[in-house]
Design brief:
With about 625 residues, this protein is an alpha+beta fold. Helix content is about 70%, strand content about 5%. It is built from 21 helices and 7 strands. The strands form 2 sheets. It has a 5-stranded mixed β-sheet with strand order 2-4-5-7-6. Helix 3 (about 40-50) packs across helix 15, helix 5 packs antiparallel against helix 6 and helix 12 (about 215-235) runs parallel beside helix 14 (about 255-275). The longest helix has about 140 residues, at about 275-410. It is elongated, with a radius of gyration of 33 Å.
Length: about 625
């Protein structure tokens, strides 16, 4: 009854100050914006109270009416009705050639399709929005590019997401803090997906620094929630707990219920992981209360929207004949309808409450299952660790054993050997020392990647120069086997990447190629540019590999011990480092080979045009 009276009072107040039918575009737009900001229900009533005769009103004004009714339905969560009104506004704005409002209509259509999880259509309409947007309005264009990046992320097109977020950043001015912060947060999410934790940590904190000046506390809290998830992936549970508690404290004090729901779920996940059952129960109860309140609010909003629409449409129809007399009759009709609707919603609410209770029981069962999974995960991690140490012990013991035995023979029986024998022993000592040095160097870099202390300093450099310098370091080993190494990388190929990490990648790949290429063989390094990536290939005409061996490459839990063409032995970590360093740049690496036909190792890196905001 109170809601019905409120609807009638709003309607009467708007009728009392109803704008004239000859109002202009800017005045009408100001009215719509005022009602949208101050009372969303009055926006619908004001819109529907306008003259419905399309022939007497300019198409732009009718387009505004349809657009803001669509805005009302979007905010209330009625996506189908919102789409209907946005498509109406598209037709009107096309008739009046109003490209600015046409761009906004397409943007809202794209947003609705995203809510409906139709990401391909969402991308299509956001691109149309960008096409009709003003080239002078950089912030609008930056916002649209940001949303296109979101859609590509939802479609798992990670490289395209990187591209659109960077394009959006390029359009932002120094004072566009909110959209800059959003782009930085999205880039951090992508780096987290790529397990590039240092870069993700840098971008989340940079996003927070921009948001501090905007006062948008809910988005600051979302960054802290993301940082908690990042620290969880790094198994830094103390920091994860610190960040999620900081996020929850901000969100609870500002009643940001949607973000708070995500934060509670993340807190439950973290405390489950560390085994703090009391904290898990506390946040399960908070989540349940929050979802109960959200369900009640959604029902209340749906009821209010239905009441407003029913009462307004009926009141307007009858008021054409006799407003004063029929208001009371309409109120009675609406009241009867309202009682029926309220009864229906009460039944729905009861069902919703039962579903929540059922969900809580499922959560408890799920918690038990996840604890069991965590137990098995710990066993799997220990098994991987044991395998890792056995590789180290085996690969380090063999060259040291050889080194010890040869030096013992030379020390005890130096005069018993000929000069050729001594040279052969020295050659063997040289190979043993090289293997030991290579293993220790790879172990050092591997341990730094695992501890998260490896420096990552992307800069712009010439790829051919890096390849040429690396080839020169392997010239002696290649000449020993009369192997020819070709540098076919184009002189104008530039990368924005960490030169030290990429040198390590190329060094390991060339070293492997020399090891498995016979005498007088050929090794070729080449590159190819694509619209959004740079490809680097290291090819050899060596002994090749079976598909079974290829499947085991780049894995720490499998020891691949294949001897080179001169009986060379590897450290077992080179290719694993290559995979770590390539993925740190957001790229990927794989091998193609057949026995007797040589091998081709391929690297694909995302192309980045600017490096002002690249993480260090």
């Amino acid at each position: 009854m109170h809601q019905l009276l409120a609807a009638l009072l709003i309607f009467i107040s708007i009728l009392g100050c109803k704008p004239k039918e000859d109002h202009n575009y800017s005045t009408l737009k100001e009215n719509f914006e005022y009602y949208e900001k101050n009372n969303i229900d009055s926006l619908l009533i004001f819109s529907l109270s306008l003259n419905k005769n399309n022939d007497k009103i300019d198409p732009t004004l009718m387009g505004l009416k349809s657009y803001y009714i669509g805005r009302y339905y979007s905010k209330k969560g009625f996506n189908d009705k919102a789409l209907e009104k946005y498509f109406e506004s598209e037709d009107y704005f096309k008739k009046s050639n109003n490209s600015v409002m046409l761009s906004k209509s397409y943007s809202m259509i794209g947003a609705v399709y995203r809510h409906l999880k139709d990401y391909k259509k969402s991308v299509e309409y956001f691109k149309m929005s960008y096409q009709y947007s003003s080239s002078n309005d950089s912030i609008v264009r930056a916002t649209i590019l940001n949303r296109i990046g979101d859609m590509h992320r939802d479609l798992d097109n990670i490289d395209s997401s990187f591209y659109y977020y960077h394009q959006s950043l390029n359009l932002c001015g120094p004072k566009d803090s909110s959209i800059i912060a959003n782009n930085l947060n999205n880039l951090a999410d992508l780096f987290t997906t790529k397990l590039m934790f240092d870069s993700a940590y840098y971008y989340y904190n940079k996003s927070i620094s921009y948001l501090d000046s905007t006062g948008i506390v809910s988005e600051i809290a979302e960054n802290y929630t993301s940082l908690a998830e990042l620290k969880m992936l790094q198994k830094n549970y103390d920091d994860a707990i610190s960040y999620i508690e900081k996020s929850i404290k901000i969100l609870e004090s500002n009643e940001a219920n949607y973000e708070l729901n995500n934060a509670y779920q993340k807190a439950i996940s973290i405390y489950k992981k560390v085994g703090l059952k009391d904290s898990v129960i506390v946040y399960l109860e908070k989540l349940s209360d929050l979802e109960n309140n959200a369900s009640k609010e959604k029902l209340k909003q749906g009821l209010t929207a239905l009441e407003m629409e029913l009462s307004l449409n009926d009141l307007q129809t009858i008021s054409e004949f006799n407003k004063k007399i029929n208001y009371l009759l309409i109120a009675i009709v609406v009241l009867v309808m309202l009682m029926g609707v309220m009864l229906w919603f009460q039944i729905r609410r009861k069902k919703a409450e039962n579903l929540i209770l059922s969900k809580q029981k499922e959560e408890i069962e799920k918690a038990k299952i996840e604890l069991e999974h965590a137990y098995h995960d710990i066993h799997d991690l220990n098994a991987t660790k044991d395998k890792f140490f056995s590789i180290i012990a085996h690969d380090l013991r063999n060259p040291l054993g050889s080194f010890k035995e040869i030096t013992r023979l030379l020390h005890e029986s130096y005069d018993d050997f000929s000069e050729d024998d001594r040279k052969e022993f020295l050659e063997m000592l040289k190979h043993s020392s090289e293997n030991i040095h290579s293993l220790l160097e790879n172990l050092l870099e591997w341990s730094r990647t695992q501890r998260g202390t490896l420096d990552f300093n992307p800069v712009r450099f010439n790829l051919r120069d890096i390849v040429e310098n690396t080839i020169s370091l392997h010239r002696i080993n290649a000449d020993t086997k009369s192997i020819h190494i070709n540098n076919d990388v184009s002189p104008d190929t530039f990368l924005i990447a960490d030169p030290n990490l990429m040198t390590t990648v190329i060094r390991n790949l060339i070293s492997n190629a020399i090891k498995f290429t016979p005498e007088k063989g050929i090794i070729t390094i080449e590159s190819f540019a694509e619209p959004e990536s740079i490809n680097i290939f290291v090819n050899d005409n060596g002994i090749g590999m079976t598909s079974d061996i290829i499947d085991k490459l780049f894995r720490i839990d499998v020891n691949v011990t294949t001897l080179g063409t001169s009986k060379e032995k590897g450290t077992g970590l080179g290719l694993i480092l290559c995979k770590e360093f390539v993925e740190r740049h957001g790229g990927n690496i794989w091998a193609e080979s057949k026995p007797g036909e040589g091998s081709k190792f391929k690297i694909r890196l995302p192309k980045i045009e600017h490096n002002e905001d690249v993480a260090h």
